[in-house]
Amino acid sequence: MLVRRLIWEYHLAYEVALSGLRRCALDNHASQLSRRGFAGAALAALVAAPGAFAAPAMTAGSPLGPFYPIRRLAENDWDLTRLKGHKNRAKGEVIEVTGRVLDRFGKPIRGAQLELWQCNAAGRYAHANEQSAMPLDPDFQGYASITTSRDGEWRITTIKPASYASPIGQRSPHIHFDIRGRDERLIAQMYFPEEAPANAADQLYKGLGDDAPTAIAGAAGAGRYRWDIVLMDG
Q1: Active site residues
Q2: Residues contacting residue 143 through CB under 8 Å, at least 6 positions apart
Q3: Contacts of 99 by beta carbon, 8 Å cutoff, 6+ apart
Q4: What are 225's strand-pairing partners?
Q5: Would you give the DSSP letter of residue 172?
Q6: How far is Cα 204 from Cα 198, in angstroms, rounded to an integer?
Q7: Closest CA relative to residue 193, chosen from 164, 159, 220
Q8: How much is the pTM?
Q9: In angstroms, rounded to a whole number, what is the distance separating the alpha carbons of residues 215 and 25?
Q10: What are 140-154's pLDDT values in tens digits?
Protein backbone atom coordinates (compact mmCIF):
# COMPACT_ATOMS: atom_id res chain seq x y z
CA MET A 1 0.00 0.00 0.00
CA LEU A 2 2.93 2.37 0.73
CA VAL A 3 4.35 1.94 -2.77
CA ARG A 4 0.94 2.54 -4.36
CA ARG A 5 0.41 5.67 -2.25
CA LEU A 6 3.81 7.03 -3.28
CA ILE A 7 2.79 6.49 -6.90
CA TRP A 8 -0.41 8.48 -6.22
CA GLU A 9 1.55 11.27 -4.61
CA TYR A 10 4.03 11.43 -7.50
CA HIS A 11 1.24 11.76 -10.07
CA LEU A 12 -0.56 14.32 -7.93
CA ALA A 13 2.64 16.34 -7.51
CA TYR A 14 3.21 16.23 -11.25
CA GLU A 15 -0.31 17.41 -12.06
CA VAL A 16 -0.24 20.16 -9.43
CA ALA A 17 3.12 21.42 -10.66
CA LEU A 18 1.93 21.41 -14.26
CA SER A 19 -1.29 23.22 -13.35
CA GLY A 20 0.58 25.84 -11.34
CA LEU A 21 3.06 26.53 -14.08
CA ARG A 22 0.30 26.91 -16.64
CA ARG A 23 -1.47 29.47 -14.45
CA CYS A 24 1.79 31.32 -13.96
CA ALA A 25 2.40 31.41 -17.68
CA LEU A 26 -1.04 32.88 -18.32
CA ASP A 27 -0.79 35.49 -15.58
CA ASN A 28 2.64 36.73 -16.68
CA HIS A 29 2.03 36.34 -20.42
CA ALA A 30 5.16 34.22 -20.59
CA SER A 31 5.98 33.03 -24.08
CA GLN A 32 7.17 29.58 -23.05
CA LEU A 33 8.29 27.47 -20.13
CA SER A 34 11.81 26.08 -20.02
CA ARG A 35 12.32 22.38 -19.47
CA ARG A 36 14.61 23.20 -16.58
CA GLY A 37 12.02 25.42 -14.90
CA PHE A 38 9.28 22.83 -15.25
CA ALA A 39 11.49 20.01 -13.95
CA GLY A 40 12.53 22.11 -10.96
CA ALA A 41 8.93 22.97 -10.07
CA ALA A 42 7.84 19.35 -10.45
CA LEU A 43 10.72 18.15 -8.27
CA ALA A 44 9.93 20.70 -5.59
CA ALA A 45 6.29 19.64 -5.58
CA LEU A 46 7.28 15.99 -5.37
CA VAL A 47 9.56 16.62 -2.38
CA ALA A 48 6.69 18.36 -0.63
CA ALA A 49 4.19 15.72 -1.73
CA PRO A 50 4.00 13.36 1.28
CA GLY A 51 1.07 14.61 3.32
CA ALA A 52 0.71 17.74 1.19
CA PHE A 53 -2.06 16.49 -1.09
CA ALA A 54 -5.46 15.20 -0.08
CA ALA A 55 -5.24 12.08 -2.21
CA PRO A 56 -8.15 9.72 -1.50
CA ALA A 57 -7.02 6.60 0.33
CA MET A 58 -7.27 3.50 -1.82
CA THR A 59 -9.92 1.06 -0.60
CA ALA A 60 -8.47 -2.00 1.09
CA GLY A 61 -8.89 -5.33 -0.65
CA SER A 62 -10.27 -8.47 1.00
CA PRO A 63 -10.65 -12.15 0.09
CA LEU A 64 -13.50 -13.21 -2.19
CA GLY A 65 -14.79 -15.56 0.49
CA PRO A 66 -16.49 -18.95 0.09
CA PHE A 67 -19.99 -17.70 -0.70
CA TYR A 68 -19.64 -15.84 -3.98
CA PRO A 69 -22.94 -16.70 -5.71
CA ILE A 70 -22.03 -18.70 -8.81
CA ARG A 71 -25.68 -19.75 -8.95
CA ARG A 72 -28.04 -16.88 -8.22
CA LEU A 73 -31.59 -15.67 -8.56
CA ALA A 74 -32.78 -14.24 -11.86
CA GLU A 75 -33.15 -10.82 -10.23
CA ASN A 76 -30.01 -8.81 -9.57
CA ASP A 77 -31.20 -5.19 -9.38
CA TRP A 78 -30.31 -2.55 -6.78
CA ASP A 79 -33.18 -3.40 -4.39
CA LEU A 80 -32.29 -6.63 -2.61
CA THR A 81 -35.30 -6.45 -0.29
CA ARG A 82 -38.04 -7.16 -2.86
CA LEU A 83 -38.59 -9.95 -5.36
CA LYS A 84 -41.10 -9.92 -8.18
CA GLY A 85 -44.18 -11.96 -7.37
CA HIS A 86 -43.42 -12.00 -3.64
CA LYS A 87 -45.90 -10.42 -1.28
CA ASN A 88 -43.46 -9.96 1.58
CA ARG A 89 -40.35 -7.85 1.84
CA ALA A 90 -37.11 -9.40 3.10
CA LYS A 91 -36.85 -9.78 6.88
CA GLY A 92 -34.61 -7.49 8.86
CA GLU A 93 -33.56 -3.86 9.07
CA VAL A 94 -33.87 -2.16 5.69
CA ILE A 95 -30.89 0.06 4.88
CA GLU A 96 -29.72 2.20 1.97
CA VAL A 97 -26.07 2.31 0.93
CA THR A 98 -24.81 4.85 -1.59
CA GLY A 99 -21.37 5.81 -2.81
CA ARG A 100 -19.08 6.51 -5.72
CA VAL A 101 -16.30 4.65 -7.48
CA LEU A 102 -13.26 6.92 -7.87
CA ASP A 103 -9.74 6.71 -9.25
CA ARG A 104 -6.60 7.68 -7.34
CA PHE A 105 -7.08 11.35 -8.22
CA GLY A 106 -10.62 11.37 -6.85
CA LYS A 107 -12.17 11.44 -10.31
CA PRO A 108 -15.44 9.48 -10.71
CA ILE A 109 -15.37 6.30 -12.77
CA ARG A 110 -18.34 6.06 -15.10
CA GLY A 111 -19.65 2.62 -16.00
CA ALA A 112 -17.80 0.69 -13.28
CA GLN A 113 -19.37 -2.72 -12.64
CA LEU A 114 -20.22 -3.71 -9.07
CA GLU A 115 -21.31 -7.13 -7.89
CA LEU A 116 -22.26 -7.44 -4.24
CA TRP A 117 -23.53 -10.22 -2.02
CA GLN A 118 -24.22 -10.78 1.64
CA CYS A 119 -25.86 -12.96 4.25
CA ASN A 120 -29.42 -12.30 5.37
CA ALA A 121 -30.67 -10.84 8.66
CA ALA A 122 -30.25 -14.26 10.32
CA GLY A 123 -26.62 -14.56 9.24
CA ARG A 124 -27.03 -17.12 6.44
CA TYR A 125 -25.94 -17.01 2.80
CA ALA A 126 -28.03 -18.57 0.05
CA HIS A 127 -25.16 -20.77 -1.12
CA ALA A 128 -24.57 -24.51 -1.48
CA ASN A 129 -21.43 -24.30 0.68
CA GLU A 130 -23.28 -22.68 3.58
CA GLN A 131 -23.39 -24.96 6.64
CA SER A 132 -25.25 -22.64 8.98
CA ALA A 133 -28.40 -23.90 10.70
CA MET A 134 -29.89 -20.41 10.53
CA PRO A 135 -32.93 -20.02 8.24
CA LEU A 136 -32.90 -18.80 4.67
CA ASP A 137 -35.14 -15.88 3.72
CA PRO A 138 -37.10 -16.71 0.56
CA ASP A 139 -37.87 -13.01 0.08
CA PHE A 140 -34.27 -11.83 0.12
CA GLN A 141 -32.35 -11.35 -3.13
CA GLY A 142 -28.91 -11.52 -1.50
CA TYR A 143 -27.01 -10.40 -4.63
CA ALA A 144 -26.93 -7.43 -6.98
CA SER A 145 -25.10 -6.42 -10.13
CA ILE A 146 -25.12 -2.69 -10.80
CA THR A 147 -23.28 -0.05 -12.84
CA THR A 148 -22.09 3.38 -11.77
CA SER A 149 -23.60 6.53 -13.30
CA ARG A 150 -21.68 9.20 -15.21
CA ASP A 151 -20.76 10.70 -11.82
CA GLY A 152 -19.47 7.36 -10.53
CA GLU A 153 -22.49 7.02 -8.23
CA TRP A 154 -24.12 3.77 -7.13
CA ARG A 155 -26.77 2.80 -4.60
CA ILE A 156 -28.51 -0.22 -3.14
CA THR A 157 -31.38 -0.91 -0.80
CA THR A 158 -30.78 -4.03 1.25
CA ILE A 159 -31.02 -5.65 4.68
CA LYS A 160 -28.34 -5.04 7.26
CA PRO A 161 -26.46 -8.36 7.42
CA ALA A 162 -26.06 -10.17 10.71
CA SER A 163 -22.88 -11.22 12.43
CA TYR A 164 -22.21 -14.96 12.16
CA ALA A 165 -19.82 -17.67 13.34
CA SER A 166 -17.17 -18.88 10.89
CA PRO A 167 -14.08 -21.14 10.95
CA ILE A 168 -11.90 -18.05 11.54
CA GLY A 169 -14.09 -16.72 14.33
CA GLN A 170 -17.09 -14.43 14.56
CA ARG A 171 -17.57 -12.29 11.47
CA SER A 172 -18.70 -8.72 11.91
CA PRO A 173 -21.64 -7.57 9.73
CA HIS A 174 -20.30 -6.85 6.24
CA ILE A 175 -21.18 -6.77 2.55
CA HIS A 176 -18.95 -8.28 -0.14
CA PHE A 177 -18.07 -6.26 -3.25
CA ASP A 178 -16.42 -7.12 -6.56
CA ILE A 179 -15.64 -3.83 -8.33
CA ARG A 180 -14.41 -3.62 -11.92
CA GLY A 181 -13.28 -0.35 -13.43
CA ARG A 182 -11.84 0.10 -16.90
CA ASP A 183 -8.37 -1.11 -15.89
CA GLU A 184 -8.61 -2.54 -12.40
CA ARG A 185 -10.58 -5.05 -10.36
CA LEU A 186 -10.94 -4.89 -6.58
CA ILE A 187 -12.48 -7.40 -4.19
CA ALA A 188 -13.49 -5.69 -0.95
CA GLN A 189 -15.75 -5.94 2.08
CA MET A 190 -17.71 -3.05 3.55
CA TYR A 191 -18.17 -2.81 7.33
CA PHE A 192 -20.52 -0.73 9.46
CA PRO A 193 -19.41 2.18 11.69
CA GLU A 194 -21.68 1.30 14.63
CA GLU A 195 -20.13 -2.18 14.87
CA ALA A 196 -16.74 -1.03 16.20
CA PRO A 197 -16.35 -3.77 18.88
CA ALA A 198 -17.37 -6.51 16.44
CA ASN A 199 -15.09 -5.07 13.75
CA ALA A 200 -12.15 -4.99 16.14
CA ALA A 201 -12.65 -8.70 16.89
CA ASP A 202 -13.07 -9.75 13.24
CA GLN A 203 -9.93 -11.48 11.96
CA LEU A 204 -10.32 -10.30 8.37
CA TYR A 205 -10.98 -6.74 9.42
CA LYS A 206 -7.96 -6.77 11.73
CA GLY A 207 -5.87 -8.09 8.86
CA LEU A 208 -6.47 -4.85 6.96
CA GLY A 209 -4.15 -3.06 9.41
CA ASP A 210 -3.75 0.65 8.88
CA ASP A 211 -6.01 0.48 5.82
CA ALA A 212 -9.01 -0.78 7.82
CA PRO A 213 -10.73 2.64 7.97
CA THR A 214 -11.16 2.58 4.18
CA ALA A 215 -13.43 -0.46 4.56
CA ILE A 216 -15.89 1.25 6.92
CA ALA A 217 -18.94 3.03 5.51
CA GLY A 218 -19.89 6.43 6.85
CA ALA A 219 -23.19 6.96 8.67
CA ALA A 220 -25.51 9.16 6.60
CA GLY A 221 -28.64 9.18 8.76
CA ALA A 222 -30.99 6.56 10.17
CA GLY A 223 -30.57 3.37 8.15
CA ARG A 224 -28.38 5.13 5.58
CA TYR A 225 -24.69 4.69 4.79
CA ARG A 226 -22.18 6.20 2.38
CA TRP A 227 -19.13 4.34 1.08
CA ASP A 228 -16.85 5.62 -1.66
CA ILE A 229 -14.62 3.02 -3.32
CA VAL A 230 -11.22 4.19 -4.54
CA LEU A 231 -9.34 2.21 -7.19
CA MET A 232 -5.70 2.69 -8.13
CA ASP A 233 -6.68 3.14 -11.78
CA GLY A 234 -9.97 3.80 -13.51
Answers
A1: 125, 164, 171, 174, 176
A2: 69, 72, 73, 76, 80, 115, 116, 117
A3: 153, 154, 155, 217, 226, 227, 228, 229
A4: 97, 219
A5: P
A6: 11
A7: 220
A8: 0.79
A9: 42
A10: 999 999 999 999 999
